[in-house]
From TrEMBL:
Gene: mopII
Chain ranges passing through the membrane: none
Domain of life: Bacteria
Domain Mop: 2-68
Entry keyword set: Molybdenum
Cell membrane found in the keyword field: no
Organism annotation: Pasteurella canis
GO BP: molybdate ion transport
Pfam families attached to this UniProt entry: TOBE (PF03459)
Name this protein carries in UniProt: Molybdenum-pterin-binding protein
Amino acid sequence: MKISARNQFKGKVVSLEKGAVNAVVSIDIGAGNIITSTISLAAAQELQLEVGKEAYAVIKATSVMVGVE
């Protein structure tokens, strides 16, 4: 599969919390960096995600907002 997103990080699933509708997955991409994402429960099941499995965090965004008080 080829995708247009340039920010692709390979890692291992270190946490998977399944809710009624969504799942929160955390992927360790190395060097102490963990990316966490909320995805649909259906997507998590389709991808057969489980702790210890290799996965990619793919980030495609047109903007990132940062704010301070």
